[in-house]
Amino acid sequence: MSEGVCRALTALRLPASQQQEVLTMLKAREDRRHGKGRVRFNPEVELLLEVSHPGGSNVAVRIYPRDLSERGMGFLLGNFLYPESTCSVMLRLLSGKAVSISGKVIRCELVRGRVHEVGMRFDQEVDVSQFADVEPVESAKAPEAPKRKWRKK
How many Cβ atoms are within 10 Å of 85's Cβ, its own excluded? Predict the structure, then answer.
């Protein structure tokens, strides 16, 4: 598990005795969820998420990113967010420029203690390679199968 996740668990005030258990749970979830186009995304600092709750209140909270894809991102948070809450997150491009990306909470699951894993779907797709140093999925080639030599009898 990345150092970023460990820092997040400490910042979210999860007792050290529970951190290893949470890391194991997050790894199991990661193995189930990571699909095509999803990459690990752990910038060195937490990010700011602005949320509009269904009841009408607006809040800004610190989040700890875990992964990023064209259509959304996953992150850890120290409190619950209602699904369908609208939100925007400030992400920094590799060039250094900060951009605001809007979206909606699609899931929020309690992991342990007060740690929640949240999924956010972006309103518009993003180019992941602008935010994380990754190899584009399209350029990855599958290995060629060995050619068979047929013998005539």
Answer: 20
